[in-house]
Fold this sequence. Notes:
Blueprint: E1 4-7, H1 14-17, E2 26-30, E3 33-37, H2 43-49, E4 59-62, H3 67-70, H4 73-81, E5 90-93, H5 95-99, H6 110-113, E6 118-120, E7 127-130, E8 133-138, E9 149-153, E10 158-161, H7 169-173, E11 180-184, H8 198-208, E12 212-216, H9 220-224, H10 227-238, E13 242-244, E14 250-251, E15 273-275, H11 284-287
Parallel strand pairs: 3-4, 4-5, 5-6, 7-15, 10-11, 11-12, 12-13
Antiparallel strand pairs: 1-2, 1-14, 2-3, 7-8, 8-9, 9-10
Helix pairs in contact: 8-10
Amino acid sequence: MESRIIFLGSGTGGAVSQQERSSGGIIIQTQGYQFFIDPGVGALAKSRQFGINPRYTTALLVSHAHLHHSNDANAVISSMTHDGLDPKGVLISNKTFVRGNEEINPVLSKFHQKCVERIITPEAGQKIGIENIEVHALKTQHSDPDTVGFKFFTRDFILSYSSDTGYTKEIADQYAQSDILILNVPTNDKEDPFNLNVADAVKIIKRIQPRLAILTHFGIKLVNQDPLVIAREVNKETAIQVVCAKDGLLVSPQSYAAELKQKTLNLYSTEEEQIHIQEHNPDSEKASQDKSDLPFL
């Protein structure tokens, strides 16, 4: 089955509360596996709207415990596992989502902890092998200090997802060699040590030179400024193809994969945790559905 990336949501803050955008998360389907990233507000509703079955999820990844990244996580786990009757899948999340901290209560319920086969709370820099796909936890600078980004090494492409983070050169350098770079950019003008703005995104894109950069996680002011215009401006500044996501955006990552895949040959070092999944996604006939209502890139 061809690899796909589907944006179930592309907003945060006022853009979600005013129902201009969802924060339903991102789906990566590749090599017969489905990864569900940051299931925030509207994750299940948007899954249905855009033809995604959470039951097929191999791994649920939650970068941190804030509302627009984790609100629907327990519901997605219930959908994955038939309310725990068929425990399956892997949860990869930051520590706060599972255990909470002094300011944030745990989001993952005790019941849903028992519904998945494995829970991993990686530190930044940790590597996790899921069959022949490798996921790296990335360093961030955010108000939840245990927030992590994710970098996927697959057979066909390398993809980095920043999650919510401020800008530093060290953080930007983690995205090196990415074919596809997904950056959470909630604002265009505000300087924030815990979140990227458009100027920060330009610096990162120039530094990393991905084949495709996707901006997402927009606040209401940026939505009202028209992300399409912003994407064109960033494209001109960086000479890189740049897209501002909208709910339902469908991307074919093979179109942006590097021709030489030698940069993925060092998978499964002794440092990483390897997971072997017994139940793969359903066959392509079940998994393939009509996506004619999704914007395609």
